[in-house]
Every structure is written in C-alpha cells, then in structure tokens.
Amino acid sequence: MKHLLARLLLASAAGGLVFQSCAPARKPSLTPDMSEAHHSLSVGDFERALDSYATVAGRYPENRSVRKEFARAVEEIKVRADGLFQEKDFAAAEKTYSLLLSNFPRFSSFAKSLSFGRGELSRLIGECQKNLSERRARQALAEGDYLRVLEGFKSLPPETLRQPSQSAGLRRIMEETRDLAGKAVARKDFVAAGKGYAVLWREYPLAQQAGIPLSFSRNEMEDGLKKCRVQLTRDGLDLYRQGKLKEAIAIWQGLLEFDPDNIEIRKAVDTATEQLKTIKKE
Q: What is the pTM of this model?
C-alpha cells in the first residue's frame, strides 16, 4: 500500500511538471530604451542621435510613443540648425540641414507630420552654400589648395551665380587665383602655378554663367597650363637622366596633381618606380 501511494505521488508530480512545461511562456514586458538617443541629442551629436532613434524605431515599428519621440527629436535638430543659420554659422547649419536631408527616408512613418520637408532643407542648404562660397574659396587660396578654390561656386545654380554678390565674389576669386599662379611661375613653383591655371581653365565657364568679364581669356590659362606641364616634364627628365629617380618621380607626381590624365607621365612614374625598386634590391 505504501509503495502504491508513493508511485501515485510520483506520477502526480511528474504530471504537474509536464503540465507546467507545456504552459505558454510569459512574454517579458520590454520598454524601449532611448537613453542613448536622448544623450546624443542633448550633447549635439545629431548623427548618432538619429542613428539611435532609427534603431529603436526599427525594433518597435508599432510603438506610437517611439515614433512621436523620434519626430520630436527631428524637429529639435531642425530648430537647432535654424539657430545656427540665424547666428550666421553657415558651415554648421549646412552640415545639420544636409544630415536631415540624407536621413529623410528614415522619417517616412511620420514625415507628413513634420513642419518641414525635403524642399525646404534643400533651399536652406543652398542658402548656406551661397553664404559660404567666397569664404571657402579664400580658405582654399590661403592653404594653396588651388584645385578646390572654386568648389563653393560650382555648387550654386546659374541664377544664384548671376546675383551681384555672388558674381562679384566669383570675379574676385578668379582674378586673385590668376595673380597667384603668375607669382608661382615667377618663383618657379610650377606645380602651384599649374594647379591655378588648371582650375581657371577648367572652370572658366562659371564666369560665363555668372555673366562677368575677366581680365584674361581661357586660352591664356591653357597656355600657362601647357608651360607648367612642359617645364615639369623637362625637370623630371633631367633628374631621371642624372639617375636621381626619387627626385624625378616627385616632380612628375606634382605634375599629375593638376594633369591626372597625362598617360606619358604616368608611364614615366611607373618605369622610374620599378627601376628604383630594382636598385634597392641590388
């Protein structure tokens, strides 16, 4: 009798275990963790903030509070960008507007509720670029980065280039670049001169779009470019014939900075480089 009772108790316990194991598991109640997103937004790391909000929104696509919080953060970033614009910090404002524009596909679930759209962001980016065009050009001139000196103006539409403030700025920069290229020739810095002549020859149509007269022609810039190309080619050959391969390569690489499609010089650099490797092995 005792053995029978023990078996019944064991069977009952086993049955209970089976019953419990078959019961559906309770789903843990998960609360979206947006602490990282909040922190990034508060310290002005907008790119990381948008990444964090988008990640949380992707995990909880049906959570309205998450979408609402994401939208609120996007509006706050736009307000901060507007503040930078009003303070005339156009570089920071352009960066922030561009960040919002590039992330706009992430806002699809609430884009219609935003107080702005893609069009407004594009317009504001254009305004920033307009205000930064001459400033960026002068920075490039100061750094000797002549090949990038007109990048700010290139991004502007023709109708903006024709505005008096922009066309006058473009004329000043192009004339100054020509003067600096001439001074570079005088001190025999043919790489710097070549860069100046190259960018003026390449971007000369900008002056035509802006409707401004220049004191030099495109053909003159082409002539200056050719003289720099010929001089650097000769200088490199002279060094090459003297067996100064490393110096010759450096000269030719400088030429390629403003004349990257020069196949003959590229071949000369490759040949001299291989010869230099052979000499080092020996």
A: 0.75
